[in-house]
Write a structure and sequence with these properties.
This protein has 263 residues and is of the alpha/beta class. The protein has eleven helices and ten strands. The strands form two sheets. A six-stranded mixed sheet has the order 1-2-3-5-7-10, with helices on both faces. The chain has a four-stranded mixed sheet with strand order 4-6-8-9. Strand 1 and strand 2 (15-19) form a beta hairpin. Helix 1 packs parallel to helix 2 (82-97) and helix 9 runs antiparallel to helix 10. The longest helix has 16 residues, at 30-45. The protein is globular, with a radius of gyration of 19 Å. Bound molecules: ligand T3D. Residues 24-25, 27, 63-68, 70, 80, 83-84, 109, 111-113, 135-136, 139, 141, 144 line the site of ligand T3D.
Length: 263
């Protein structure tokens, strides 16, 4: 078995990152967090990278924090907090603010922080057999990795409270119906669908897509007047890219645009 906790594959214009501890349902260890942060940073630094696909090896996406790392050899529990500050919170902030789209292909169980890392991605595709579980309450913990922020925004307070307080698995099709994720697809179609999306993003106007991400995240805290001002500023920025000119010319010339994704 490949011992690397995160596998990185290069594609034309995007990268596939696979959480790779299948025997532990891809639970996050410190080594996996470090490998993931490094892989994301390398993708971000690569000008040719215009999308990221995040998935898991084996039958799970991720079961969240590896609980073996939360107990000392003498049986004492380690009070959480440090790993959130050092790994989970920077990861979630990074996924949301990356200059290109991030697609999660949720191939099976997504539990605890594994669920919320998936939900922090821009587009969440899930295999029909996948489930989303806010497992925290089973341990006496609070949903983290952005869960308490994202859940009510995605599905409303009633469903967010049910998911968080009951910690029951939510099947992928229901997650789609509730608006928690973009789409549930047949299990054997998941990776092809996710790669198709990333291939599309790899030829898209990347700067504009990054600005869309920024606008939608800012809208969560802004009033309408502030958001209108932000849209004007971002539109000026997007409209100054070569891709905007290419988009307009291609439309008028009735041809497919050739976007470079550059400023
Ligand atoms: O810093 C901080 O600590 C704060 C951050 C907290 C973030 C969190 O994510 S807290 C939540 C942690 N996650 C969980 O509580 C989920 C724990 N796992 C489960 O409840 C179940 O494994 C699942 C419902 C996800 C799947 O159940 P099932 O029956 O399909 O599989 P399984 O048999 O339970 O798991 C297979 C193996 O993976 C098993 O090992 P074994 O018996 O074959 O040797 C199991 O112990 C291991 N495993 C699964 N999840 C974890 C894990 N080992 C360590 N940590 C895990 N999270």
């Amino acid at each position: 078995m490949d011992e690397r906790p995160v596998l990185v594959e290069q594609r034309a214009g995007y990268r596939v990152l696979t959480l790779n501890r299948p025997q532990r349902l891809n639970a996050f260890t410190e080594a996996m967090q470090q490998a993931l942060a490094a892989a994301v940073a390398e993708a971000e630094a690569d000008e040719g990278c215009r999308a990221l696909l995040l998935t898991g090896a084996g039958r799970a996406f991720s079961s969240g924090q590896d609980l073996n790392e939360r107990i000392t050899p003498s049986g004492d529990v380690i009070v959480p907090g440090a790993a959130l500050e050092k790994y989970y919170n920077p990861l979630v902030r990074k996924l949301r603010s990356l200059r290109f789209p991030v697609v999660a292909a949720v191939n099976g169980v997504a539990a605890g922080a594994g669920c919320n890392v998936a939900l922090a991605c821009d587009i969440v595709l899930a295999a029909r057999s996948a489930t989303f579980t806010q497992a925290f309450a089973r341990l006496g913990l609070v949903p983290d990795a952005g869960g308490t922020w994202l859940l009510p925004r995605l599905v409303g307070q009633a469903r967010a409270r049910g998911l968080a307080l009951l910690a029951e698995p939510l099947p992928a099709e229901k997650a789609e119906a509730w608006g928690l994720i973009w789409k549930a697809v047949d299990d054997d179609a998941l990776m092809a669908e996710a790669e198709k999306l990333c291939a599309h993003f790899a030829t898209a106007p990347t700067v504009g897509l990054g600005l869309i991400k920024r606008a939608l995240d800012a809208a969560e805290d802004n009033d309408l007047a502030t958001q209108l001002d932000l849209e004007r500023a971002l539109q000026r920025e997007a409209g100054s890219t070569p891709d905007y000119g290419e988009g307009v010319r291609a439309f008028l010339q009735k041809r497919k645009p050739q976007f470079t994704g550059r400023r």
